[in-house]
Amino acid sequence: MAKKKFNLELALYTAINNQIVSEGTNMLGAFRDVLTDLMHIAHNQGIEFKSRLKAAEEVYTEERATCEDCGKKLQQDKGNNFTLCTKCQNNYPD
Ligand SMILES: [Zn+2]
If both were cysteines, with which of 14, 21, 54, 67 could 85 make a disulfide (CB 3.0 to 4.6 Å apart)? Predict the structure, then answer.
């Protein structure tokens, strides 16, 4: 039987929901708690949190990139450079 791939986003949703139930907080409070604990982990590991946050924002922007004309989600090549829109043939970045 094949091992199921770990899904970090799902694990984080589960952690947030567990925090809501455990602490009697809401989504915003639980989200803040997750970020706070990530800051503690970064500090304990000698990682500069703000630089990781900036890197995450860059990856998020790339992952959310869509074609300006048709709105189709753009696919990335292995170098994380945007490719063309397969629907209307726009090239990104141009
Ligand atoms: Zn397009």
Answer: 67
